[in-house]
Design goal:
- There is one protein chain.
- By secondary structure, the protein is α/β, with parallel strands linked by helices.
- Helices cover 40% and strands 15% of the residues.
- It has twelve helices and eleven strands.
- The strands form three sheets. A seven-stranded parallel sheet has the order 3-2-1-4-5-6-10, sandwiched between helices. Strands 7-9 form a two-stranded parallel sheet.
- The radius of gyration is 19 Å and the shape is globular.
- The termini are far apart.
C-alpha cells in the first residue's frame, strides 16, 4: 500500500483519511494544531502554507488530498500562499495533487452546473477559488505536476456541523420538533453532497490517471429543496412535520455586523435564492463511485446527531 497525505481534518478530511486507512494505506494528516494519532493515521502539526515543511511531510507520498481552506473571511489573502505551497509540494515530490473544490468559481448560472462551464465568478471568493484550480491546471499542462480537482456542493451528513446549511442550525432543532429557519428560498431545488461520497471520490480519482488534469463533480443525489430535506430528516427522526421558515433578509444583514462568516455569505446568496443544481453525470459515466442512496444519507445523519447529543448530554 502507499502513503497519502491529507491536508485538513474537517468533515471531508477526516472521512478521506479514515477511508484511506481502512484500505490499508499509510496516512499522514496535516493540520495547524495536530491531533493524537489513531489507527493507521499519523497527525502532523504544521502550516500547509510552509512549502518546505509540507514538502518534507509529503516525501514518498502517492497523493496529496487537499481538504482544508483558510478561514472563510480570509480566503482572498490566505488561498494564494496555500496554493503556491501545495503546488510546490506536488512538484517536488511527484505526488498527485487532489484538490477538493467547490462550485463558487462558476458564479451564478442558469441551469444545471457542469464541469465544462467557464469559471466566470466575479466575487472575490469565487475568483480566488477558481484561481487555485487554474494555477494547478496550468502546471499540470506544463508537465510539472499531476493535478485533479473534485468539486462538491454544500456538504451534508455525519460530521458536518457549523459550516453546513443542513447541519447545526437545522438538525438539532428538528430533532426537538422545533421550526427551522433557512437562508434564501426554502422551496428552491438545491444539491447536497454527502460527505462520505466526497471522500470516496477523492480516493478514487487519486488512483485514476485518466481523471487527472480536469475537474469532476462528486456524485450527488438529485437536487431537493431545504423544505423537502427537512421533512425527510424529521420523518426519519420521528418528530413529525417541522415548519421551515425563510429568514428575512434583514436578519443575516444584522448578524453580519457581528459575524465575519455570515457577512461573507452575501457573495453566494444566489445559491439559495434560486435553483442550484449540480450535474455529476460525467463522473458517473467515467468512474465507479455513485451517490449514496438518499434514505441512507438521511438515516446516518440523524443517527450521528443523536449520538452527538447523547455524548454531549
Amino acid at each position: 500500500m502507499s502513503i497519502h497525505v491529507v491536508i485538513g481534518f474537517g468533515p471531508a478530511g477526516a472521512a478521506t483519511a479514515r477511508l484511506l486507512a481502512e484500505q490499508g494505506h499509510t496516512v499522514r494528516v496535516v493540520t495547524t494544531s495536530g491531533r493524537r494519532p489513531e489507527p493507521g493515521i499519523e497527525h502532523l502539526a504544521l502550516d500547509a502554507s510552509d512549502s518546505a515543511r509540507l514538502i518534507e511531510a509529503a516525501r514518498a507520498a502517492t497523493a496529496i488530498h487537499v481538504c482544508a481552506a483558510p478561514p472563510y473571511h480570509r480566503w482572498a489573502a490566505g488561498w494564494p500562499p496555500l496554493a503556491s505551497s501545495l503546488c510546490a509540494a506536488a512538484e517536488a515530490t511527484g505526488a498527485v495533487l487532489v484538490l477538493l473544490g467547490n462550485l463558487y468559481g462558476y458564479g451564478p448560472v442558469d441551469g444545471p452546473l457542469t464541469e465544462d462551464l467557464p469559471l466566470a465568478a466575479t466575487g472575490p471568493k469565487g475568483r480566488v477559488r477558481a484561481a487555485v484550480w487554474e494555477r494547478a491546471r496550468a502546471l499540470h499542462e506544463q508537465g510539472r505536476i499531476r493535478a485533479v480537482e473534485v468539486r462538491a456542493s454544500d456538504f451534508f451528513g455525519p460530521g458536518v456541523t457549523d459550516g453546513g446549511h443542513l447541519a447545526a442550525r437545522v438538525v438539532p432543532r428538528l430533532l426537538r420538533g422545533k421550526p427551522v429557519s433557512t437562508l434564501g428560498d426554502p422551496d428552491a431545488a438545491h444539491s447536497w453532497t454527502y460527505v462520505p461520497d466526497v471522500a470516496r471520490a477523492l480516493v478514487e480519482v487519486a488512483g485514476e490517471e485518466r481523471a487527472w488534469g480536469r475537474p469532476w463533480h462528486v456524485p450527488t443525489q438529485p437536487a431537493r429543496s431545504v423544505r423537502e430535506m427537512v421533512g425527510r430528516l424529521a420523518a426519519r427522526a420521528g418528530t413529525g412535520p417541522v415548519a421551515v421558515r425563510r429568514l428575512p433578509p434583514a436578519v443575516p444583514a444584522v448578524a453580519g455586523l457581528f459575524s465575519p462568516m455570515i457577512r461573507e455569505l452575501k457573495e453566494i446568496r444566489y445559491q439559495f435564492d434560486r435553483p442550484f443544481v449540480v450535474d455529476s453525470s460525467a463522473y458517473e459515466a467515467a468512474f465507479t463511485v455513485r451517490a449514496t442512496p438518499l434514505e441512507e444519507q438521511v438515516g446516518a445523519t440523524v443517527d450521528w446527531w443523536r449520538e452527538r447529543g447523547a455524548a454531549a448530554g
